[in-house]
Amino acid sequence: MSAASVEQPFNGVRPFSLTAIADEIMERHPGYRVEIIGGHLLVTPSPDAPHARALTKLMRPFIAAGLDDDETEVLQNVGLWLPTGAEDYAIPDLVVVDADIDEHYVKNNAYEPVCFRLVLEVTSSTWEDDLKTKAAAYAKAEVPVYVIVDRKHQRLHVLAEPAGGKYRYHRPHAPGELVTLPDSIGAKVTLDVDQILKAGQLKAN
User: Fold this and answer.
1) How many CB atoms lie within 10 A of CB 15?
2) How many other β-carbons are positioned within 10 Å of the β-carbon of residue 38?
3) What angle do CA 54, 59, 65 make, to 5 degrees?
4) Rounded to whole angstroms, how far apart are CA atoms 16 and 89?
5) Closest listed residue to residue 148, CA positions, set 69, 80, 51, 65
6) Cα 34 from Cα 32, distance rounded (Å)
7) CB atoms within 10 A of CB 172
8) Rounded Cα gap, residues 199 and 154, in angstroms
9) Per-residue pLDDT for the chain (205 aa), expressed as one digit of tens each?
10) Three-state secondary-structure class, residue 94
């Protein structure tokens, strides 16, 4: 999910922590998602129905592959603690995590990156955050696989092999392609790009 970046004019002195500001925003605007990446607040309105529909379509192949049993779980909106700043965390739309995730809790409903095998984002209005800001943050956290459903440009991106704060592998896929994700997630998962991208569009009247 994408977001609008919010920078606070502290003039070098922060009267409150960014986490406190994030909590206040969520209290004042129920349903909004607030993340902190690189010392910046990313604030995202509630997703629309096509966004949620795409996530439902996406969960099915992961569950069918057995990734929601035994060693791993398939979850939505779980916090990922990031190494990019003292208060940094992201909340990916969909994740594949190790089943012992509860043992890796840090704080603020976020968990250590070591238990994440895959993170996935479905873009909203400000798609640049998913393609750039979050790609860099997830690479620095060494999340093995990052998938982006880019609804604006009608592409599905697969990023893998994080090293030196970047993903060495990055390939966009167009409608009509079938994409098999890297084995590092723990099972063979093939995504139908056309089906997922169509689910993320508004239904025609």
Assistant:
1) 8
2) 14
3) 145
4) 17
5) 51
6) 6
7) 16
8) 11
9) 444 444 444 455 555 688 887 778 778 877 788 889 988 888 888 889 999 999 999 999 999 999 999 999 999 999 999 999 899 999 999 999 999 999 999 998 999 999 999 999 999 876 788 999 999 999 999 999 999 999 999 999 999 999 999 999 999 999 999 999 999 999 999 999 999 999 999 887 6
10) strand
Show the DSSP H helices in 29-157 as ranges: 49-64, 128, 134-140
User: Are the CB atoms for 36 and 22 separated by under 8 Å?
Assistant: yes
Spatial separation of the C-alpha atoms in residues 92 and 3, rounded to whole Å: 12
Query: Which residues are CB-contacts of 195 (< 8 A; sequence separation ≥ 6)?
Result: 57
CA distance between the termini of the chain: 25
Give long-range contacts, CB 8 A cutoff, 24+ apart: 150-156.
150/123, 151/50, 151/51, 151/54, 151/122, 151/123, 151/124, 151/127, 151/197, 151/200, 151/201, 152/123, 152/127, 153/127, 154/197, 155/193, 155/197, 156/191, 156/193, 156/196, 156/197
Length reported for the chain: 205
The pairing of beta strand 110-111 with beta strand 116-122: unpaired
Task: Let me know: does 61 contact 24? Beta carbons within 8 Å.
Answer: no
- Are 81 and 115 contacting, i.e. CB atoms less than 8 angstroms apart? no
Contact (CB, 8 A) for 178 and 193 = yes
